[in-house]
Design a protein that fits this description.
Elements: E1 14-15, E2 27-33, E3 47-50, E4 55-60, E5 65-72, E6 75-82, E7 90-95, E8 101-105, E9 110-114, E10 120-123, E11 137-142, E12 148-152, E13 157-161, E14 167-172, E15 180-185, E16 191-195, E17 200-204, E18 211-212, E19 224-229, E20 236-240, E21 245-249, E22 255-259, E23 275-277, E24 282-287, E25 292-298
Antiparallel strand pairs: 1-22, 2-25, 3-4, 4-5, 5-6, 7-8, 8-9, 9-10, 11-12, 12-13, 13-14, 15-16, 16-17, 17-18, 19-20, 20-21, 21-22, 23-24, 24-25
Length: 300
């Protein structure tokens, strides 16, 4: 199949990091996912999720479906189509700590939950939302306790809900923000916001008001649309959509490095959308504009 991983291509693209950042992420290309198990082409994928058991799920957005793979010992298998009628526009995916899968529908602006067998378990509808009572979910993250953090762009806030939708807390966006494109949850439980227009990260510790975590990052990124935090190192990773790059930020907000570049060739990205990391150091990037998911390993 065309999506099988091809090894031994030593492609490492790194922008030098600041002094003292020797442990910054370095990416070496392993292969790509461009088809399902029947050689049907992947089309403009906007989401990819992976877990420590080797499971990988792709939001094949242009085909209105999800695809399931396994990746173990650098060997990719599967590509079964997971068609969920209730979710027509999958754009973000994440595995929960109990093996279920959470999927954001980009048209409905709702997060659906799938059981581990792929069956639809319902939408996570926030209950008890106030001031305003309406909300629009742009993105989300799931923490280790199976709580969801919803990026509500209508209410200009982050809604924290449990798996049943009960609102646990809400944190207002910082004043005079530009465009909040995504959020992340750190290993300490802090919430980080990504302001794509101002190129700044904000942090909320223990539900406190958001405060700047970084300085202006315009020198390092164009327009970032996705953010995630490592559950091991605490480093923060940004997907620079317009720049075709992955940017590493330290837990203290320091710039650590920028890798990859905009383009159509192997190892280059064209409007990437989401990234996920495995416990073994593999990195999956939803390379939307190139209609593929690229696989790298951490070569540091």
């Amino acid at each position: 199949m065309r999506y099988l991983v091809h090894l031994a291509l030593a492609l490492v693209l790194v922008v030098p990091a600041a002094a003292g950042a020797a442990d910054s992420l370095k990416l070496r290309y392993l292969g790509s996912i461009s088809t399902d198990e029947k050689d049907g082409a992947v089309k403009t994928p906007e989401g990819v999720a992976c877990n420590d058991q080797g499971d990988v799920i792709v939001a094949d957005t242009g085909n209105s479906r999800l695809l399931r793979y396994t990746f173990q010992e650098k060997n990719l298998k599967g590509g079964a189509v997971l068609k969920v009628d209730q979710i027509g526009a999958p754009v973000r995916v994440q595995y929960g700590p109990k093996g279920d899968v959470f999927v954001l529908d980009g048209k409905l602006h709702k997060v659906g939950r799938l059981n581990s067998d792929g069956s639809f378990a319902g939408f996570v509808e926030p209950v008890g939302v106030t001031g305003p009572a309406k909300y629009v979910t742009r993105s989300f993250k799931v923490d280790s306790a199976n709580n969801l953090f919803l990026l509500d762009i209508l209410g200009e806030r982050v809604l924290k809900v449990d798996s049943t939708g009960k609102v646990l807390s809400q944190i207002a966006f910082p004043k005079e923000y530009g465009l909040i494109s995504d959020l992340a949850i750190t290993i300490a439980g802090d919430v980080i916001l990504l302001d794509a227009v101002k190129s700044v990260l904000y942090v909320s510790r223990k539900d406190a008001a958001f405060a700047p975590l970084t300085k202006d990052l315009h020198d390092f990124m164009n327009f970032a649309n996705y953010i995630t935090a490592s559950s091991r190192s605490g480093d923060i990773y940004l997907v620079d959509q317009d720049g075709g790059a992955i940017i590493t930020i330290g837990p203290d907000g320091s710039f650590l490095g920028r890798q990859l570049a905009l383009g159509w060739r192997t190892g280059q990205l064209y409007y990437p959308a989401q990234v996920c990391f495995t416990k073994n150091g593999e990195v999956f990037i939803a390379d939307r504009g190139n209609s593929r998911v690229q696989i790298f390993e951490n070569a540091k």
